[in-house]
Amino acid sequence: MAGAYKSKLLSPGKIYKYCFNPILAKDEGIDAENLTQIALSILGQASRQRKWPGIKWLLEYLARDLQRHDVRLEQNLFGCKFQNPIGLAAGLDKNGIAAAIWNIFGFGFAELGTVTWHAQPGNPRPRLFRLAAEQAALNRMGFNNNGAESMRKTLERQQLNPPGQRATPIGLNFGKSKITPIEEAPNDYSSSLEVLSSHADYAVINVSSPNTPGLRDLQHSKQLLRLVRELRKLNNCPPLLVKIAPDLNNKAIDEVARLSFEEGLAGLIAVNTSLDRLGLEQRVLSQTGRPIKEEAGGLSGAPLRERGVEVIQRLRNAAGPNLPLIGVGGIDSPESAWERISAGASLIQIYTGWIFQGPDLVPNILEGVLAQLDRHGFENVAEAVGSNVPWLKD
Description:
Blueprint: H1 12-24, H2 32-48, H3 53-66, E1 75-77, E2 80-82, E3 86-88, E4 109-115, E5 128-131, E6 136-139, H4 148-157, E7 170-174, H5 185-196, E8 202-206, H6 221-231, E9 240-244, H7 250-262, E10 267-270, E11 284-285, E12 290-291, E13 298-301, H8 305-319, E14 325-328, H9 334-343, E15 347-350, H10 352-357, H11 361-376, H12 381-384
Parallel strand pairs: 3-4, 3-15, 4-7, 7-8, 8-9, 9-10, 10-14, 14-15
Antiparallel strand pairs: 1-2, 5-6, 6-13, 11-12
Helix pairs in contact: 4-5, 5-6, 7-8, 8-9, 9-11
């Protein structure tokens, strides 16, 4: 399979670009969070009513255009079967309202959340900013979500198949409630996971968001070990992964990798958003009139690409070849996806890049990965993981 995916004249990708490119091409205009909430509201309704004839037809149309099925893309990791290695990253569908239909957009898995035990409004608005020229975003959302009990009811209303019997795995991403003291964090995470464990193909311990005070302290090996062991006491605990920050130093990355391997965790996800401004320190947010270096929040999107690769390589070297890694941050093209897989990620996730590039990004990446498998002579995507081979052009 050669070349990038080219969408049809009236494809979802073309419609998306016509409707949204003018908005996404500039920082100002429709507030980024408002735009996200409008889209999610529509997707949530479609998920609940996906069996209604008109909506069913529309979803089938989307699936025909955006999904790609090829046995070479399949993997079995931590008890889950992945039809392809591209997942939706946590942070978009925080409350799981569209859980039943993310596979329609071609994703091989979707991660919902971050969810906390206590419902919380998050930080004051505005708290999500487009950086159009850089294909990036700055967010200081603060784990705004409706809480674990509410997510349970939301998922139940959608009548999902149980874990292991779904078209694509669903991961749930858990964070600490802001009002919970750091010393009580294990109980906070445990309460959320206990309520939602029966809905999760895998669970993610999010200890790396920069927008909850003190949260990143849980990445320290002693704190993380205490948290992991508390969660594993739960009956029917799903496979556990840990999501880490890009701002950890090499020693800390090595410690997390060793702990994860020694404790038998299902895997690691790297990376979350960054407090480092990655060369954009003087970039002014038009919405506030201040340079980014003076603004709170985590940076996501294209500027994270290089650091994301570095962390995956470091984790792979420290943990060895058997611990599954999920790469996220700055992946917005087939080349950047292949780069992360080659560096050692068995799976990848996209969010900011998907917003800017639109739904064509998923089939574009999948066809690009298949083309690279052919050019390098790999039988399947698992053979390419950690191979350190470059992207080969036509």
